[in-house]
Amino acid sequence: MLLEKGKAKFSWKPKRGSWKRIQEGVLKNGVLKEEGTPEQEALHKKYTFMDAADVDPAWIKKNNMEKVWSRKSIDPRVKKIANEFSKAIKQLGGVAGDEGKMKQLEDMMKKHVSKGKGWMYGDPFDDVIKLQGVSIYQNIPDWIGVVDHAARKDIQVSLKDGKINVSGGGMGGWGNPAANEKEAEEGLYSGYIS
Known about the structure:
Layout: E1 2-4, E2 7-9, H1 19-31, H2 38-47, H3 57-62, H4 65-69, H5 76-92, H6 99-109, E3 127-129, E4 134-139, E5 143-148, E6 153-158, E7 164-167, E8 176-177, H7 181-186, E9 192-193
Antiparallel strand pairs: 1-2, 3-4, 4-5, 5-6, 6-7, 8-9
Helix pairs in contact: 5-6
């Protein structure tokens, strides 16, 4: 293609490559490519969403998601919850493999992980602070994980002795920021989607 004052003009010069590859490229880049607005494109470049056309700038602004996504240090709420789990597990003398002690741990942690404290479900073993990049999960029988998705840190509290291990690995890798409300819901409301 030749460009002439911002307009595309057809050029008869043949492209290199197989006919199938050329057609796939035309379909992918010309026909199926969805264009986003300049604001969507800018957010797409900044946070590498899957598709610029899916970015919902209004949802991002309304929920102050850029503040969450740009955080680099571990959220104080994550540290506090991990420390509370550690303290409770040590107080119980370890809870690994003991269902009675696990129930006690759950009851002890409900005052820290409750809907009133911003958690969605009030479940100390599987919950999320909505759209804050903070979640809790249980890895039976080894640990409770308190995850800060934005800082890409997984604080694992041993169910055996309450010792804390800070991991940068993440279970199955780290997710991308959710581009819209639907993606946030698919990512279990953490504000990220895997």
